[in-house]
């Protein structure tokens, strides 16, 4: 087993972890896309599983620790905790940057510090812990490395506006930032009405109007949260 995997095993502290799967968890698709490396597997399947495991662990934690909060507030907190920047920072704290297996091109363009690559690797590593070490250890891993953002989430959830909340939902579910499109601008210059649509994955998910662009966008975001995503605010 390569020395780098041994080093990561030592950091994680799980001697019984599956080292073959752990290597896969830190292998980016850019590496396996190269013909000479096609025999290896990348971390996309593990990341898919880890994403679901992470969501369950955080949802369960918030449900148990914030019994008075409504679904909307819990969703805001969860979205902040499992966001790409939060997971990427957790991966940096863990030292994952030093162990990523990327193509030479990805290395030279700063791939070891990209939030998208680091967050995916964190979720993939979580999946390996869950599969080969245990469910309890997976929960401990998540709560340890996301401790700081978990502590800050309740404060952030209160201060987020509707646009911020919608962005977090979209990033959590689709890894995409909502796009606001001006549909119409009517009325005299001193009494205009702006109409905006907000789009996610090419679909219109909300529509709103207002006396200025900012208000119209917030109204569209609120419409999306309440009616498309069916969440309470």
Structure, described:
This protein folds into two domains: 3-156, Ribonuclease iii, N-terminal Endonuclease Domain, Chain A (Orthogonal Bundle); 162-228, Double Stranded RNA Binding Domain, CATH 3.30.160.20. The model has no long low-confidence stretch (mean pLDDT 90). The radius of gyration is 21 Å and the shape is globular. It has a three-stranded antiparallel sheet. It has twelve helices and three strands. The chain has 233 residues and is mainly α. Helix content is 61%, strand content 10%.
Strands of the biggest beta sheet: in what spatial order? 1-2-3
Structural class, by secondary structure, is: mainly alpha
Structure annotation, total helices: 12
Sheet-strand content, in percent, reads: 5-15%
Highest-level CATH class of the largest domain: Mainly Alpha
Distance between the termini: 50 Å
Descriptive keywords:
mainly alpha, Ribonuclease iii, N-terminal Endonuclease Domain, Chain A, 3 strands, Double Stranded RNA Binding Domain, 10% strand, 3-stranded antiparallel sheet, 12 helices, 61% helix, globular, 233 residues
What does the secondary structure layout of this molecule look like, with pairings?
Layout: H1 3-12, H2 19-25, H3 29-32, H4 44-65, H5 71-81, H6 84-94, H7 104-108, H8 115-132, H9 135-145, H10 147-159, H11 162-174, E1 179-186, E2 193-200, E3 203-210, H12 213-228
Antiparallel strand pairs: 1-2, 2-3
Helix pairs in contact: 2-8, 4-5, 4-8, 5-10, 5-11, 6-8, 8-9, 11-12
Q: Quick summary of this structure?
A:
This protein has 233 residues and is mainly alpha-helical.
């Amino acid at each position: 087993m390569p020395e780098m995997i041994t080093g990561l095993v030592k950091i994680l502290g799980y001697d019984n972890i599956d080292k073959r799967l752990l290597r896969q968890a830190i292998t980016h698709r850019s590496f396996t896309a190269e013909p000479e490396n096609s025999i290896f597997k990348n971390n996309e399947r593990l990341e898919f599983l880890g994403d679901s495991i992470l969501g369950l662990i955080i949802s369960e934690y918030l449900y148990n620790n914030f019994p008075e909060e409504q679904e909307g507030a819990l969703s805001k907190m969860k979205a902040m905790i499992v966001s790409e920047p939060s997971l990427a920072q957790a991966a940096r704290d863990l030292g994952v940057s030093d162990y990523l297996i990327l193509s030479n091109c990805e290395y030279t363009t700063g791939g070891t510090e990209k939030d998208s690559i680091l967050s995916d690797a964190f979720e993939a590593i979580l999946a390996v812990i869950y599969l080969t070490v245990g469910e309890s250890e997976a929960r401990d891993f998540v709560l340890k490395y996301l401790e700081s953002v978990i502590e800050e989430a309740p404060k952030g959830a209160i201060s987020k506006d509707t646009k911020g909340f919608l962005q977090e939902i979209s990033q959590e579910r689709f890894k995409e930032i909502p796009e606001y499109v001006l549909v119409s601008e009517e009325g005299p210059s001193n009494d205009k009405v702006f109409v905006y649509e907000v789009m996610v994955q090419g679909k219109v998910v909300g529509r709103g109007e207002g006396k200025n662009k900012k208000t119209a966008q917030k109204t569209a975001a609120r419409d999306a949260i309440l009616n498309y995503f069916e969440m309470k605010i």
